[in-house]
Amino acid sequence: MTVTWEELGWERLTTGVGRCRLPGWDCTAGLVIGEGTALLVDAGSSLAEGARLRARAEELAGGRVTHLALTHPHFDHVFGAAAFAGAELYGAVGLDAALAHEREELRLDAIRNGLPVSDADQAVDALAAPRHLVSGEWTLDLGAGRQALLANVGPGHTAYDLAVLVPGEPEVVFCGDLVEESGEPQAGPDAVPSRWPDALDRLLALGGEDALYVPGHGAVVDAGFVRRQRDALAARFGVI
């Protein structure tokens, strides 16, 4: 019997494309299913969560997760990455260095936010850096006419923000934490506030008016929401 997205706790957005909201930090993971391929967007906050994500994604896809894209280097999006051994790993240029040299900062941030110390230690010890680094745009051919465009649209929320556009009707844009719906966008010490509104302009140019925009936290939004958040961030950070 074929399992449905909803039965596994996922939200179907369009044919072969969906997302789930993970417990704890309400972080979004996305899934794009191709022909004998599957792209996951973000990996969860621990190895155990990554393993659960992989199992459910592969049940929906009917095969292995072959590609993993990390939208930015925060623990709730990357600590599950090592659970996807064998998948081709993608991130924005510089993400590899951030994951290699800022592991202790990531570990401490995870613990401050409530991740058990043992889970944080295990994830940091296993953390893998992306082999494929995106400086502009990178199109993945997932087979059967399915493509996904990886776009380095940052800096903004961090110095290494990657978005994923899935063409179709409607188009779907996975935004990472450049867009947040369930709360005010978080600007930590690694944010680049002066560039964040420009990053949202690039997201809007990428997806257009009719796309579904999938935030890093919260419900799916439209272009109007992204535009309003862009204007609020510009006012918040004094960006003209």
What is the topology?
Layout: E1 11-14, E2 17-21, E3 28-33, E4 38-41, H1 47-61, E5 67-69, H2 75-78, E6 88-92, H3 95-101, H4 103-112, H5 117-126, E7 132-134, E8 137-143, E9 146-152, E10 162-166, E11 172-180, H6 196-207, E12 212-217, H7 223-237
Helix pairs in contact: 4-5, 6-7
InterPro entries: Metallo-B-lactamas, NDM-1-like, RibonucZ/Hydroxyglut_hydro
Domain Metallo-beta-lactamase: 26-217
Protein name: MBL fold metallo-hydrolase
Descriptive overview:
- With 240 residues, the chain is an alpha/beta fold.
- It has one domain (6-237): Ribonuclease Z/Hydroxyacylglutathione hydrolase-like (Metallo-beta-lactamase, Chain A, 4-Layer Sandwich).
- 30% of the residues lie in helices and 27% in strands.
- It is built from seven helices and twelve strands.
- The chain has helices spanning 47-61, 75-78, 95-101, 103-112, 117-126, 196-207, 223-237; strands at residues 11-14, 17-21, 28-33, 38-41, 67-69, 88-92, 132-134, 137-143, 146-152, 162-166, 172-180, 212-217.
- It has a seven-stranded mixed β-sheet with strand order 1-2-3-4-5-6-7, with helices on one face. A five-stranded mixed β-sheet has the order 8-9-10-11-12, covered by helices on one side.
